[in-house]
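Task 17 of the worksheet. Students: predict the tertiary structure of the chain below and write it out as structure tokens. Keep your answer in the requested format; marks are given for formatting as well as content.
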Amino acid sequence: MASGDDQYHPKDAVKAAISGTMITGAAGGLVSAIQNTLTKRNVNAWGVFTKTGGTIAVFAAVGGTYEFTRFASANLRERDDSLNTAIGGFLAGSVLGLRFGSTPAVLGFGALTAVVLGAYDYTGGALSGFKKNNEIDEFERKQELRMNRRRPIEQTISELGEGRGIYGPGYEERRRERIKEKYGIEVPAKS
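Model answer:
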């Protein structure tokens, strides 16, 4: 166990499970209401709970299982990393697979959810890509990147040659001499 800021602080798994159950249960209620609305037969308003209420239960169970398992495994392992998310994802996916009633579905949904959630957490938990440090000014960051990647002009000229906006020192004199030798035209020097 490391000292200082690296020390693990236990988290309340039960509180997280209740919160996760409530949030995903509410989302399940919304999905159940949509399912109830789209049924062919006219079902009363209580059909959200009676006819398609299993959706609410599955959503709530998945959310509660995920949150509880994630924090409980973090507390047991005393580490907060992507493996906790993968373990929670496996059990949550297994709960989702229970609806199909077969072992391959339980294991398959669990493995798929574990891989997706574990990889998402491992890569930083953002779909938008790498997040920049907001404390650094954007102009200064780009200037630093330009200076970091800058090559000497001699190396650039040796690799690409002169022209196309890349001119080394003494280019104008060399150009005047080439034109005079090839065409016999005297090019005046710029002031």
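Marker's comment: Residues 97 and 105 are 5 Å apart (CA to CA). Helices lie at 13-37, 47-50, 53-77, 82-98, 103-122, 138-149, 153-160, 171-183.
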